[in-house]
Amino acid sequence: MSRVLLKGGRVIDPAQRLDATRDVLLEDGVVAQVAAKLSARGADVISAKGLVVCPGFIDLHVHLREPGREDKETIATGTRAAAAGGFTAVCAMPNTDPVNDNSGITGFILQKARSEGVVRVYPIGAITRGSRGEELAEYGDLKESGCVAVSDDGRPVASARVMRRALEYARAFDLPVVDHCEEPALSERAAMNEGPVATLLGLRGAPAAAESIVVERDIQLAELTGGRLHVAHLSTAGAADAVRRGKARGVRVTAEATPHHLVLTDQVVKDSDYDTATKMNPPLRSEADLRAVREALRDGTIDAIATDHAPHTVDDKKVEYDQAAFGVVGLETAVSLCLDRLVGPGLLTLPQLVALLSSGPARALGLPGGTLATGAPADVTVLDLGRRRKVDPARFESKGRNTPFAGWTLKGAPVMTIVAGQVVWQERR
Amino acid sequence: MNGYPHRHLLGIESLQPSEITAILDTAESLREILDRPIKKVPALRGKTVVNLFYEPSTRTRASFEVAEKVLSADSLSIAASTSSAQKGETLLDTAKNLEAMNPDMIVLRHSASGAPHFLARHCRAAIVNAGDGAHEHPTQALLDALTLRQRKKRLEGLRVAIVGDLLHSRVARSNVWLLSKMGAKVVLCAPPTLVPPGIDALAPVTYRIDEAVEGADAVMMLRIQHERMTGGYYPSDREYHLRFGLTEARVKRAKKDVLILHPGPMNRGVEIASEVADGPYSVILDQVTNGVAVRMAVLLLLLGGGGES
Known about the structure:
The structure holds two protein chains of two kinds. Chain A is α/β, with parallel strands linked by helices. Chain A has helices at 75-84, 103-116, 139-145, 160-170, 184-187, 196-201, 209-225, 237-248, 259-263, 267-271, 287-298, 314-317, 334-343, 350-357, 359-365; strands spanning 3-13, 18-27, 30-35, 44-47, 52-55, 57-62, 87-92, 120-125, 149-151, 177-179, 192-193, 205-206, 229-231, 253-257, 304-305, 380-390, 409-419, 422-426. In chain A, strands 1, 2, 3, 4, 5, 16, 17 and 18 form an eight-stranded mixed β-sheet that branches. In chain A, helix 6 (196-201) links the parallel strand 11 and strand 12 (205-206). The chains are: A alpha/beta, B alpha/beta. The interface between A and B is medium-sized, with 23 and 27 residues.
């Protein structure tokens, strides 16, 4: 029987509308009690004075790369990176090699996560076999073996017919369909966002419409079928508007946005002289898109902040911009970036941010946790709002070093991560 | 101090007007060497230049090679089709291997925009951009400017129309930067499908070639880059020529002493009628000679001048 008492912290639990100084007692892997001045008898006491105690953060969008690309990341290194970034649970995208389109792969991922992982891993299965966009994967098996959603992330589902069937069929298992919304005919060979910056750089661009068209399509299909749609890494004003309207008329749609789309615009591709750490898909967008996505965060259109953590080897990135792999790592910078760049200047309140990292993602995909209510999993993220840290990729737990934030000094950081009542990571002082 | 304080030539965008003038003045004074019976000076003896060409090129590559020979630099040219790139070697590995032979300069032509910036970050040699993707082709813009300046005695106030495939054109981007920095009035013209978004922040855009050519001191025609088209930008070469091609009738709308430029290679009968290409106002072959002079100037300014850091 294990008892941990977090004493005297500012506890923020948006699901219970709580923001006050409280003690948090964790017992046998669940939250036993949250109250003022709890007795420490028989408990390991952790002082949280001056710190913020939150429900464990959940990242809905992570590429752990295992099986198949263990040179980029493994379940061991990826979950360590998650813990170091303040996340207690991650959803693992299925674009592994082989693709997670059957219970065998799902089982492998979960078994690895149990033996080597440090945080909870929720696999996401493929929408279609091999993510080829043609035949549906076996959702019944995927669900039974532990998948929490289906997605062909990275390979947009081009056919409206296939997407319709996926949304329809997934209803039988109450699985959300997570779509990487992109019309490939409009984004062919694009290396960045289409617009004035791409024009000056001479790089081929993907227009914002390539995303918003498919978001519109998917919302109409969710409406048609009654399926559950989750829009991955929303990055455009048009997509935000589509989700807002969809929600208003009762469509079952949720959405996530990444920290990099909330902080950077395509101008950074130019300012960095074609640094391939600025290349990802969806690409960094215009200032107007950035403002619209931020507004969608504030008004509840967007349910979650998710990293789209996409580790790559140095070789994948140390090439010409056109040839470089898409993606940035995000697990170890996300929380600090949001604290410094969104909460710091007052774009979000701290409880709003905590909700977008805990209760929001939990609700979007129907995951356990995301709250410190009695009986919830004893997953806790502890923040130090005053802590300043310089982003140093050489010190990442992730194998990926591909970040555009290297050298940034950020105020506010996770300092302790607790999963099932066990401290899995804490900042070395 | 030679008026060009940079280590590389990656594009026109980052140059000051005074630096552009310095290159043009140097080219002007070097041009005379090309008319001598013995076209060779020892200015760059002992310097090594590698011409690394990842895209087909006749004019630009020959032009750099001649410029290097005239200035007595040791040079070698590598074409991707005959290099280890065919065996899957990365650009950086190729450049690093070449660099182990201690060249003073790498002249790079590459289909990826930003490839010269990438090499500049990772190599010690001076990098000259000989055309990168749809980004910039600085020596082309410089030789165009030299040609204009010789004939018109100035750049400031000239009305210059740039007509054709703006979307895929690095020549257009470099020329817009250069001409507007030097005070010329640039008008851009293309069918809407070949106008890159936001280019109108640099110069006004029209879809009507008659309007663009009206009163022009010079017309720069851009090649339709069939090899970069994934299809469907315009219905047919026939319609393109009829609506956006430079014909004799359209040339009449320009000033009497208009100059017609084309960076080559030309698609005769598509963007330009043969009578215009071969007509009296065409300075297309002057451009080639000036190309050598401009590249000599760039070599000299980057490698000569006492070798300060």
